[in-house]
Amino acid sequence: MLELRPVCENCGKNLPNESSDAMICSFECTFCKDCVEHILHNVCPNCGGGFEKRPVRPKEKLLKYPAKNEQYLKPVDLEKFAPLLAKNKDIDPHQR
């Protein structure tokens, strides 16, 4: 079950369940579309994988399986991220 994390880990942008800007990697690291495209270049700074649009949970299911309330904010250290980005940004996520 997806955790539906409520904010972008990098910039803190609100990403409620219905957000079309929420992007996740296979480990559910959650970032906004802007950070994924312009800062991360589709490379997860935590695992090196790519991102996909996070699905929206149907509203009636939110009652039984609510989105997380905890805001996991961990801005990307661009200096530490640079080697991982250089290694992966030109490789399709399916080939990493």
Provide a concise account of the structure shown:
With 96 residues, this protein is α+β, with helices and mostly antiparallel strands.
Please give a structural write-up.
The chain contains three helices and three strands; from the N terminus they run E-E-H-E-H-H. It is of the alpha+beta class. The protein has one domain. Strands 2-1-3 form a three-stranded antiparallel β-sheet. A hairpin with a 5-residue loop joins strand 1 and strand 2.
Sketch the topology as an H/E string, one letter per element.
Answer: EEHEHH
Number of helices: 3
How big a fraction of the residues is strand?
Answer: 5-15%
Report the major sheet: 3 strands, antiparallel
Q: Which term fits the overall shape?
A: elongated
Structural class: alpha+beta
- Give the overall average pLDDT: 96
- Gyration radius from CA atoms, angstroms: 14 Å
How far from one another are the termini?
A: 25 Å
Strand order of the largest sheet: 2-1-3
Helix content: 10-25%
The count of β-strands is 3
User: What is the number of independent domains?
Assistant: 1
Unreliable stretches (pLDDT < 50, length at least 5) are none
